[in-house]
């Protein structure tokens, strides 16, 4: 159970605070409601490139990391399809350093052409390291393009190609900053052993005079339901063949469908005792590894089942076996014991995730963005309320051949 | 609204950094339990540390297979039943294995401690290594190792160990994945009998503890077999080579590893070299990050660190860089090391590193799990948690002149080993 208080400044900045009475550390999280979803299709990867630039200095603070380190702090950031998140952890007595730095880079970012060029190279190397120079590195990228045809989730945060990053200009940087890095599009969240009233006052002091210049992000096109099976076979220099099935979820992060899909993938792959590992790896030996998960996006996301086929397993047998597990979800009610198991696991996972200030500050920001902070402590209850019939009904609605994208990713020649 | 002064706030270096002493409860048979009470956390973590890393194995992969298959079938529970029970209680189970140690960890909500301990008893005291599970494991691991070894970074890590220690040295050796085919359940049984004994084991328990919990874990330890059934480890002198290159067709990035053998944590210069390697490449803003990432854009990341093994230690610099930047990267790494030898570091830069390390320790100690990890490392090195005080003092007191002296003494190019995995040499 995480206690919290909220406050909104007159410029629209939302502030959420958790008082943690045990920690010596403070976590300061600054979330901006902009991600890869807001990019132009011709300039993908830009939100993430921009995140890198946020560390490259302002008029007042030319080197961002230095004052963080002097305050015994550590900082980093990530970008996903929905939002960009910056976080600093430091001793609680130094919390103002973090607020000073975040307020400063909300208004004073100062990027010159040389810095932009260097940072583009760094991000292209990140693209190379994560995608091109990894076995199966582009698998998730290929899958997105199969599942999404109109919604911007069809590209990942890193972008569709390094060329999009290489072509980014200073004008685009300035326009993006002006449009999205503004108080009403931001959420400040803090977890520390500090009075919430004091944090609100500090937020007022450091952010209160920043004028809001925000306009609402453009609406995004909804992804239409898939009506025909999609299939793609890829041959690359990889050691083994993988099989992946993906289905568009018929609801967003706040829908009940999200929790149902989360629970179904836990039945399938939530631990070593779960169905896919037990049946496909341990008992039948068809796969050497399996997984199932949901992407967890804010707009309708994706349910994914994936596995690496054992040498000698015929593709058709592997596919049949995966579909058999989906049919079981549709036709056999999950037993009381098994449901209790995944629900316990969900509850324990939630608790283990609340043991440090950083996770708590991040969660506060994320659930504020979702628009329902009560879910922060309420999801275990939602999860516990799910009944077997509802799972079967949802599985029947989603796991249909004409709604499936099948990706087969294997070695250049079959060994 | 009146104008607001938005100057940089003052910062303080928090004092009173403390790590609770672990209470040591000795168990008659040679093992020991260390208890760290963190009230209010609601969770219990117990880690069992065995001197059972890969240096002790006679058959390739048998050390990691033994550790990983402890939970895959016991005298009373099948692999599926162990997994079912752990999942049912939401208990977290983890096995880590390195060259020296295997660490088996269970984390549980306080209210599920008893059933989790019962599973731990089965897993640690009565594993059976069933043939079918060994077979599944062999296939799974052979495949995943093949996937791992398609990455230049993994190839470079293994090549670096072989080149630094020698291809047959216990710290350097790597075996082809085909050797999994020869792994038999008898190999695991034998390794288990040799190494999973009281004299090779200690446990660290942290979180919301009670007398009942501590005596439960102590009883488990007391049930480990005593005595020894093993030869002492033979550790030959390393056979170092200065260079190695492995061609990886079509790699858009090269993996570069540069390093040298030094000494383990017990050596008086270890902490000083930790500070020196941090200056070189141990944080964001370090010299190598500034050089290779922020100025030249060659890489997404570069890291330098002191690695501590049971019987030695080494300094390593690791980075994956654009293929056409490989040669210059190696040159820049040596240039930055040379700069530490020839120019005295400024007070300002050293102060940053000092504060950064101070914050890092505070972050690691935030929460019951981090405290347990630090305690384990201290015990492995034959120390109590008072080591932290010594470490912090050394960091506070080290001077720029001392850093330069360490660099002159140890950052000697001729002593270094460089390995590259990539398209071109």
Description:
The complex is a heterodimer of chains A (415) and B (425). Chain A has 415 residues and is of the alpha+beta class. In chain A, 42% of the residues lie in helices and 19% in strands. Chain A is globular and about 60 Å long. The N and C termini of chain A lie far apart (52 Å). Chain B has 2 domains: 23-222, Metalloenzyme, LuxS/M16 peptidase-like (Cytochrome Bc1 Complex, Chain A, domain 1, 2-Layer Sandwich); 243-422, Cytochrome Bc1 Complex, Chain A, domain 1 (2-Layer Sandwich), CATH 3.30.830.10. Chain B has helices spanning 62-69, 79-88, 113-125, 131-148, 152-165, 185-195, 211-222, 270-281, 287-295, 326-342, 347-364, 368-380, 387-397, 400-410, and strands spanning 23-26, 32-37, 43-50, 92-97, 102-109, 201-207, 243-247, 253-261, 299-308, 313-322, 417-422. Chain B is globular and about 65 Å long. Chains A and B meet through α2, β5, α3, α4 and α10 of A and α2, β5, α4, α9 and β10 of B.
Q: Could you give a short description of this structure?
A:
The complex is a heterodimer of chains A (415) and B (425). Chain A is an alpha+beta fold and 415 residues long. Helices cover 42% and strands 19% of the residues of chain A.
How many helices of chain A? 15
Q: Tell me, briefly, the overall form of chain B.
A: globular
Helix content of chain B: 40-55%
* Overall form of chain A: globular
Please write the string of helix (H) and strand (E) elements of chain A: EEEHHEEHHHHHEHEEHHEEHHHHHE
- Extended strand count of chain A: 11
Query: What does the main sheet of chain B amount to?
Result: 6 strands, mixed
Strand content of chain A: 15-25%
Q: CATH homologous superfamily of the largest domain in chain B - what is it?
A: Metalloenzyme, LuxS/M16 peptidase-like
CATH topology of the largest domain in chain A: Cytochrome Bc1 Complex, Chain A, domain 1
CATH topology category name of the largest domain in chain B? Cytochrome Bc1 Complex, Chain A, domain 1
- For the record, the count of structural domains of chain B works out to 2
Distance between the terminal alpha carbons of chain B, to the nearest Å?
63 Å
